[in-house]
Amino acid sequence: MTSEQLLLACAALGITTGAGLLLIATAVFGRPGTTDPDTDAPPSSSPSSLTTRLAVWRQPGGGRRLAAAIAAALAVGGLTGWPVGGILAAVLAWWLPQLVGPDHAHTRELARIEAIATWTESLRDTLSGAAGLEQAVLATARRAPAAIRDEVTRLATRIERGTRLPDALTAFARDLEDPTGDLVVAALVMAAERSARQLTDLLGLLSATAREQASLRLRVAAGRARVRTAVRVIVTVTMAMAAGLAYLNRDYLTPYDSMLGQLMLLVVGGVFAGSFAWLRRMSAIESAPRVLSGLDVLTMRRAGVQP
What's the predicted TM-score (pTM) here? Predict the structure, then answer.
């Protein structure tokens, strides 16, 4: 191994070691700015975007994606002797399920919207039986839809522990992180603080709005299907071309063996990564903006803590 290759290998090891330490720290200490779901302590700060992105690997399937990224980095780096190639392979392996796989995020968000609509209807029907708002929330928590059952259960737990209903609802909206849920929570907070009239009628309108939004997202997803197909074709052809060149005509890629070649490979890989990210963004369905914002600051002020 030449000195240039040794320097590149050390740089790659430093980058991967730093990323591994960040992932370990995220797993051990958790995301800053979050609260214990069973307590009412206000958050000390909002989670940073970097921490939020690093916490993705802790979600279902994140461990498999991380293992696949490490395996791809070791395989490509070992076969080609390119540290940059190993890094690019790891990045591609990490994002490949989102590029060519089904849109699980859209499916999950759609299921949550439907679940919010169902829970809102259940809450409306319970309130129609002359039950109080807190009693209605506790009653519906036992049969809440699976997509939001954990959030509704935490809401009921806060109420049972004596948390003021507006504060518990504010934490519930923060747990949901959904624009449709914000609309429902806003109506419930107004009812809890100002005794809003005709709450059952309002909840019925909100549930109907939620189902209309779910139907609209389905139509939008059908329109974006062609773009997602194009993304899959482009990514597959690009990967096949790179693998074919490396296997069939290795001499053509010899210039990348030098340090300058590795830097150029990093530039080329960055251009492709940016293009893939742009295509992915074109095919993705953007969520509606949140109705309720600054919930952390509101909770802190109610608790008497200066944000």
Answer: 0.62
For the chain, how many residues are written? 307
Do 224 and 166 touch, CB atoms closer than 8 A?
A: no
Contact present, 147 and 214 (Cβ < 8 Å): no
Residue 162: closest CA among 40, 42, 41: 40
Residue 188 CB-density burial (10 A; 0-12 exposed, 13-18 middle, 19+ buried): buried
Q: pLDDT truncated to tens, each residue of the chain (307 aa)?
A: 565 555 555 555 555 555 554 554 454 444 444 444 444 444 434 444 444 444 454 555 667 778 888 888 888 888 888 888 888 888 888 888 777 777 777 788 888 889 999 999 988 888 877 568 888 888 888 888 999 999 999 999 999 999 998 889 988 988 888 888 888 888 888 888 776 567 788 888 888 888 888 888 787 777 777 777 888 888 888 888 888 887 888 788 888 888 888 898 889 888 888 888 887 777 666 666 666 655 544 444 444 434 4
Q: Three-class SS of residue 76?
A: helix
Long-range contact pairs involving 216-225 (C-beta distance under 8 Å, separation at least 24): 217/106, 217/109, 217/110, 217/113, 217/285, 218/110, 220/285, 221/103, 221/106, 221/285, 224/283, 224/284, 224/285
| Residue 135, token pair as written in the block | 């009693």
Give the separation between CA 163 and CA 83, rounded to whole angstroms. 54
Would you give the distance in Å from CA 89 to the centre of its chain?
22
Do the beta carbons of residue 68 and residue 93 sit within 8 Å? yes
3-state secondary structure of 81: coil
